[in-house]
Design brief:
The protein is α+β, with helices and mostly antiparallel strands and 639 residues long. The chain has helices spanning 3-14, 37-49, 198-203, 222-230, 259-264, 270-284, 301-306, 312-322, 332-345, 363-374, 497-508, 519-523, 566-579, 620-623; strands spanning 20-22, 34-35, 68-72, 80-87, 132-133, 156-157, 210-211, 217-218, 238-240, 243-248, 251-254, 354-357, 378-380, 385-391, 397-402, 407-409, 413-416, 431-440, 454-458, 468-473, 485-492, 527-537, 553-556. It has a domain at 3-79 and 359-429 and 541-579: 3-Layer(bba) Sandwich (FAD/NAD(P)-binding domain). The protein is built from 14 helices and 23 strands. Strand 10 and strand 11 (251-254) form a beta hairpin. The two termini are 27 Å apart. It comes from Leptosomus discolor (Madagascar cuckoo roller).
Length: 639
Amino acid sequence: SGLPESIIAAACARSGQRVLHVDSRNYYGGNWASFSFSGLLSWIKENQQKTGVIDECEDWRKLILENEEVISLSKKDKTIQHVEDFCFGDRDLAEDIQEAGALPKLPVFGASGAEGVAQESEKECPPVESAFPAVESQEPEKATGTEPAGATEGSNTEITSESESSHSTALGESTLELGKTGAAPLEISAQEPKKITYSQIVREGRRFNIDLVSKLLYSRGLLIDLLIKSNVSRYAEFKNATRILAFREGKVEQVPCSRADVFNSRQLTMVEKRMLMKFLTFCLDYEQHPDEYQDYENNTFAQFLRTRKLTPSLQHFVLHSIAMVSETDCSTLEGLQATKKFLQCLGRYGNTPFLFPLYGQGEIPQCFCRMCAVFGGIYCLRHSVQCLVVDKESGRCKAMVDHFGQRISANYFIVEDSYLSESICTNVCYRQISRAVLITDQSVLNTDSEQQVSILTVPPVDLGKPAVCVIELCSSTMTCMKDTYLVHLTCPSTKTAREDLEPIVQKLFNLNTEKDTENEELEKPRVLWAVYFNMRDSSGVEKNSYDGLPSNVYVCSGPDSALGNDCAVKQAETIFQEMFPTEEFCPPPPNPEDIIYDEDEIAPEDSGFSNSPETKPESPTEESSSGGSTAVKKEDNEE
């Protein structure tokens, strides 16, 4: 039930198909899932032990006919490797401590543990009226004893369609200016960070929603467009990424992106400000000026930047924090395209191009699962599949057999890559992603506001190695407890995750648990807990790379190493169009007032229900109240 499969399931159910969606895991999302702290510890233990699925029915082969053959599926998930977790406190003291309010509960739609923190979170994240945040006021926030950092009036409003939304970009009217020098500092900024123990983390474990995959949503990306078009956005809430950071000369500093940021920046000289604005303006419509870049098409983007009379600091900002591309492998055209995409996404919902879903990235697959269920889809967790049944004559897949020995027939089968056995994947060459998740006691760059969502790209130490993407989340994203930060590190793998990422962790954070440390280490955030693991990247694998798959079996990949979600959305739409070329992909549900009923199908007014299948779209806003996300109705004039 990862993101591509969930999108396909929702699209199929919306177009009137009967959908059965099964997952051998006991949670939604697969490798796109989010966990509470105790849930993540269980996931770590499970992947370190690598226990397989035990067959509950051994006589399922009796269901296979003479003119049929089987494609056995994998019993073990081999997508996660080299899992190592570290506690930088006294773990022994937390052995007998349980999560506050922890009760056995079945997996449900919504965020893990979201219900348990709803009341306490009101102070950190004020009630909102919509799914997507809007551009905030230019006025700096007033620091008071009761108002939380970043809580400004109207900070979340309804998302509008393209025709209604502001078309401003970084070079236009972006009005979100967080962390202005004129803002009064919060009282806590002058204090030392609170001492957080491992026991507290365990006790408050339900306040954590820790993603297995770390991504952000581009405000004009394919996933945001799909959420708006399908009206799935009402099932989730989002927060702006508030700042873009850079790591240069051993220090973390904020990167000015919008016009206001550039001209308010104290890091840049007036000459640098003019140079940067001139270059960003060129990048927005570089296609109209081919003579300025054609001679450098065969060069790298880094080489092209050197010809633009940009200072070394500006070249660093553009390459690593705006375009966010490789210094050695990215061509000039690719760099210009990446820079333009970044700039076009500015100003739609804030002064950065990115949004982050409250309660974690794992909410997004569940939103599409909810849409599928609303339109009649059936979901079964803890439900593994033994094999696919293939007709020898036609070569098409006819059915599947589950671990209970049930034979279930279908016309199309969508399978996530991790379910395929090694015999099918003999010719497949997988990439790997290195991941690390840290819980820290303070931000990598302290400012007046504690509630910051930051993205930082750390350039590689050695040429040829990948840069590391760092995303730091504050407690108002509902992903960690108060007075802590959740830090995600991601890069394409060259070695194990710990070997790839620990040098970056040591540069940015203090791993020393002893009191006697140097002043430089004291200034760094202290790591309280960390986990490293490698995740398989199956994106980009062509279907013909899999041996012996029938034509009506489609394979979805797991998460890729990119920052956005475009790969998953493209894959889902491609597979759906191959199955149903005449159907629209995820059309919006009809408005209740637009539904026309036949007279004989209208139920009596006092019955409270109707047998008409067209009434199904009525249920999302009512049903979603039981989940962890907030359902939000949209304006009539909204897309």
